[in-house]
Every structure is written in structure tokens, then in C-alpha cells.
Amino acid sequence: MEQAEHIAAAESRLAAGETQREVATALGVACSTLLE
User: Is the CB of residue 33 less than 8 Å from the CB of residue 24?
Assistant: First the structure.
């Protein structure tokens, strides 16, 4: 998955009320990756 797609997916999941940890796990990335 492209980084832009990861960001879009993460933003939509966070907006839906998921925690950063849940989103990171679902997308297969480290939590720190979402914070960059």
C-alpha cells in the first residue's frame, strides 16, 4: 500500500473512533509511523 493510501486509511479509521494502536495494527504499521 502506498504511504498516501495508508495515511488516508488511518485518518478515516481514527475519525471513526479507533485508537492509533488499533489503526496501526489493522494497517500493519508501527504506531510511530502514524505519527510522522
Answer: yes
